[in-house]
Structure formats: C-alpha cells, structure tokens
Specification:
The protein has no helices and seven strands. With about 90 residues, the chain is mostly beta strands. Strands 6-4-3-2-7 form a five-stranded antiparallel β-sheet, with no helix packed on it. A two-stranded antiparallel ribbon has the order 1-5. Strand 2 and strand 3 form a beta hairpin. The relative contact order is 0.33. The model has no long low-confidence stretch (mean pLDDT about 90).
C-alpha cells in the first residue's frame, strides 16, 4: 500500500473550541477539517461533528506535509461545539 502525506496550508486551518464529552472540559484545537457527518448513536442515526487535527503540529506558520498517522479524530455531538474561527485571523 502506498501512503501519502497531506499538504496542510495554514490559510485553510480552523480554530475549533468544543466540550470533550468524556471529560466535560472545554478543548481548543487547530483543526485541519471540521464537518457535520452522519453517525449512529444510542438512539439510532444522528448527526455528529467530526474534527480532525494534526497532533504533532498545533501552531503552523507555513504550509507543511502531515503524516496521516499523526491525525487525531474527534466525534462530538453538535451541542458540544463552542466556536469555529479561521486559524489566521
């Protein structure tokens, strides 16, 4: 299998704040993507928010290549989302 590194451009990054469901603590991350996705919960099908971050680089100043094994995925209920802003603002 061929693996590829992702080109991450700081212009496209997001600052995302959310409440982590397992700890009930507010978390702030620099996200590569943040999207509403279909999910299955205890009450059947629902909508969740997927947040993908690069755990190895949280303050990039220039474009860089990201190893996909460094990606962290969060899947949270929409009510736990506190804010989304451009990274470079």
């Amino acid at each position: 299998m061929t693996t590829y590194d992702l080109l991450v451009d700081p212009v496209r990054l997001l600052r995302v704040r959310f409440v982590e469901p397992s700890t009930n603590a507010e978390v702030a991350v620099v996200a590569i993507t943040c999207a509403y996705v279909p999910a299955v919960g205890p009450n059947g099908y629902t909508i969740a928010v997927e947040i993908v971050t690069d755990s190895s680089m949280q303050n990039p100043g220039v474009p860089y290549y990201c190893d996909p094994t460094h990606l962290t995925h969060y899947l949270i209920p929409p009510k736990n989302l506190r804010g989304i802003n451009p990274y470079l603002s």
